[in-house]
Amino acid sequence: MTQSVVVQVGQCGNQIGCCFWDLALREHAAVNQKGIYDEAISSFFRNVDTRVVGDGGSISKGKICSLKARAVLIDMEEGVVNEILQGPLRDVFDSKQLITDISGSGNNWAVGHKVFGSLYQEQILEKLRKSAEHCDCLQCFFIIHSMGGGTGSGLGTFLLKLLEDEFPEVYRFVTSVYPSGEDDVITSPYNSILAMKELNEHADCVLPIDNQSLFDIISKIDLMVNSGKLGTTIKPKSLVTSSAGAVKKRHQKPFDAMNNIVANLLLNLTSSARFEGSLNMDLNEISMNLVPFPQLHYLVSSLTPLYTLADVNIPTRRLDQMFSDAFSKDHQLIRADPKHSLYLACALMLRGNVQVSDLRRNIERLKPSLQFVSWNQEGWKTSLCSVPPVGHSHSLLALANNTCVKPTFMELKERFMRLYKKKAHLHHYLQIEGMEESSFMEAVSSLSGLIEEYNQLDATKSMPVEDFPRLSIAV
Amino acid sequence: MSIVTVQLGQCGNQIGFEVFDALYTDSHCPQGLCSKRENEAYQASCKERFFSEEENGVPVARAVLVDMEPKVTNQTLSKAAQSGRWKYGQHSCFCQKQGSGNNWAYGYSVHGPRHEESIMNLIQKEVEKCDSLSGFFIIMSMAGGTGSGLGAFVTQNLQDQYSNSLKMNQIIWPYGTGEVIVQNYNSILTLSHLYRSSDALLVHENDALHKICAKLMNIKQISFSDINQVLAHQLGSVFQPTYSVEGSCHYRRNPLGIDWQVRPPLSGLPTLGKASLNRGLHFNMSIANLVILRGKDVHSADLGGFKDSALYTSWLEPINAFNVWKTQRAFSKYEKSAALVSNSQFLLKPLDTIVGKAWNMFASKAYIHQYTKFGIEEEDFLDSFTLLEQVVASYCNL
């Protein structure tokens, strides 16, 4: 089995990361009753004998002594990381896994990328190499960051190039939180566009997330919980947003619930690689199946169900509802409507008590309402993992390579152009060494190229599907 | 006469387990519907074919388990050991840490050469345990990366190293609506390579097995376990011992040694016109049919229907193309059972469909970069397409 390393960058990245580690521990605790350090846990955690000083002390088998997250935490301000280190997860992180600074990036991509990039390059490489050495067989780096700020956006994308050069065989999966329309960071369009170019060129796979969509999902759950429309109570711990179990607890920080959704996304993405099932899907299969052309590697994700009701026997209808919900625009983690756009590829990752007949039945049922590109009319990748998420009896993660990402990118470009035409705030960027107006132009052109690819695909939507003439053989 | 089984990838290993389980359960079934002596002969023959003896009396399957990541083989090994009735050899398993990622090129060009020696050594050890080797049975899927790519590589190696032994590949044809998006690419690459190195390809389609579970067995929530058990049952009824000579008590028939290959008539094949798929066929033309009967009344069964010349292509006499194997010993508690193995146009449509879909995808160059990354170039794809179009045309012209 392989291991993965999570690199969380910036405030957003670290907060989501923190939720992820919390949920991951809960999940493994629920599955692994005997406390044995097995291969599933080793995919994200090291087992360390804390009595040993220094670097040794890694235990590869036997009872769990002390679990350390395979993570590197990077932030150019100390606030968030300090909070994590004082919180309930402090023992999960090694102080040697952190890189912090005091001044922050001032919501400036150029500061994050150019200034802090060159300042911390060596340190970053060292921590990454260390974490890779602790792995038997490193398969994947998960990078978590936001696009709109300075550190996550700038430094986060700087390290993509580092990872590509230093570990070319290891996959780079990036979870990127895109700024929503009402974002309060004025320069977020600049930061996002500059970051996009890096994502285009150096990421293997990107999972774009939108704060507004996460917020809408939470509001929907709150509505359902509080409206009393549900006859039976919701199973505790079964909310896709819950971390501590009690359903009615008011979330202290507004972002907690939203971050939990993203954390669940990452857990479900890796579940079939960590746990057994009748149809496994490893991380390298995601890229193989969902990325038909190297540049088109943006995947829209949706998670269902959002909660599980307390009935033990899940009637088939409810299972089918889970599949239908996965394709509805209300369940997508960015503002997108995959049903009315063109699918290049779709992956369905199921967990829990779902069998192949349920899968087939639902694919047959939903297929007619979805449009697939002509050369991939049956472009489904499926996986069945036997272990359900904590508190659920089953769950579904749908990943779609679909042209419905296009509006997000187009909107971003528009917001960028509005600012750039007036040259607003540009001097903050241009005064950084290495930044010129051409950097902006290149970034926009990279994005425009991507949008054009999606346009061309969309143009084929209404064309009739024709088979290419086959080879004729002399018999 | 022993058969060495090689189980590759998740599919191969999951099925392999069910097959050995079915074979064991059947051979130790008390109601054989025949004399005790008969039953003992049957058991002994089955045992020799598929199992070797271990010290503490638990039979060990003559199998080599291969997968590029550990989860499935670990599960398979422990399921067998837990049953307490039979098990796999402790050292018969070859496993790596990172899978093939559904990439045929990775399975064939990277894993193959890298692990060639270790895998072939394991197989050699298993072969040495056999008094006389009948041949190899390789279980693999076509859709994934390990079963398909590494499976093709291993089969080629077996062809080189054991050219006198027969090789039969059990191939799993994936569901039409996707299990894996690149399954059509993986399938055509697998088939074209196997065509050059395997002696026989025994095909099972997931869609067909699924229908059996749904319609004939009325299973409500069908799992892969159910599907694999149906498959194992079918394979068991083909591979369990049968008489080699009418009325004899010697179970010596070599299942891998039947005339799977077609001998064209001495005067050469008749000249063939252009292939056309829309011929309004009433029968799928067969080149060869094999019926296996087990249980009560096998000697009085009427097989006239199978000898109808309308079933067979014009340049074959039914007498040359039709074979029967019989045994009185019932299979798996079924009083009477029959199995049909057929080399006919039945697979023409599925094959043609897969080639068509793969060709459409290839024309748009989608996913090709994933294959060229590991050394499978567009020419390799074209070679595969060419070979398979020839196969399609040949079957079409029966």
TrEMBL record, chain A:
Domain of life, source organism: Eukaryota
Keywords from the UniProt entry: Cytoplasm, Cytoskeleton, GTP-binding, Microtubule, Nucleotide-binding
Main location: cytoplasm
Xref: InterPro entries: Epsilon_tubulin, Tub_FtsZ_C, Tubulin, Tubulin/FtsZ_2-layer-sand-dom, Tubulin/FtsZ_GTPase_sf, Tubulin_C, Tubulin_CS, Tubulin_FtsZ_GTPase
Domain Tubulin/FtsZ GTPase: 49-277
GO biological process per UniProt: microtubule-based process
Compartmental location: Cytoplasm, Cytoskeleton, Microtubule organizing center, Centrosome
Domain Tubulin/FtsZ 2-layer sandwich: 279-414
CDD domains, A to Z: epsilon_tubulin
Keyword Calcium: no
A single MF term (Gene Ontology): GTP binding
A cellular component annotation (GO) from this entry: centrosome
Short name of any one Pfam family annotated for the protein: Tubulin
Subunit and partners: Found in a complex with TEDC1, TEDC2, TUBE1 and TUBD1.
Recorded family membership: Belongs to the tubulin family.
Annotated protein name in UniProt: Tubulin epsilon chain
Species the sequence originates in: Callorhinus ursinus (Northern fur seal)
Organism phylogeny: Eukaryota, Metazoa, Chordata, Craniata, Vertebrata
Gene that produces this protein: TUBE1
UniProtKB/TrEMBL annotation, chain B:
Keyword Signal: no
Organism: Callorhinus ursinus (Northern fur seal)
Protein name in the entry: Tubulin delta chain
Keyword S-adenosyl-L-methionine part of the UniProt annotation: no
Annotated GO biological process: cell projection organization; microtubule-based process
Lineage start: Eukaryota, Metazoa, Chordata, Craniata, Vertebrata
Keywords (A to Z) from UniProt: Cell projection, Cilium biogenesis/degradation, Cytoplasm, Cytoskeleton, GTP-binding, Microtubule, Nucleotide-binding, Nucleus
SUPFAM superfamilies in UniProt: Tubulin C-terminal domain-like, Tubulin nucleotide-binding domain-like
Record domain Tubulin/FtsZ GTPase: where: 47-247
Localization (cell): Cell projection, Cilium; Cytoplasm, Cytoskeleton, Microtubule organizing center, Centrosome, Centriole; Nucleus
GO annotation, cellular component aspect: centriole; cilium; microtubule; nucleus
GO molecular function: GTP binding; structural constituent of cytoskeleton
Family note: Belongs to the tubulin family.
Signal peptide: none
PROSITE patterns: TUBULIN
InterPro entries noted in UniProt: Delta_tubulin (IPR002967), Tub_FtsZ_C (IPR008280), Tubulin (IPR000217), Tubulin/FtsZ_GTPase_sf (IPR036525), Tubulin_CS (IPR017975), Tubulin_FtsZ_GTPase (IPR003008)
Main location: other
A UniProt-annotated Pfam family: Tubulin
Domain of life: Eukaryota
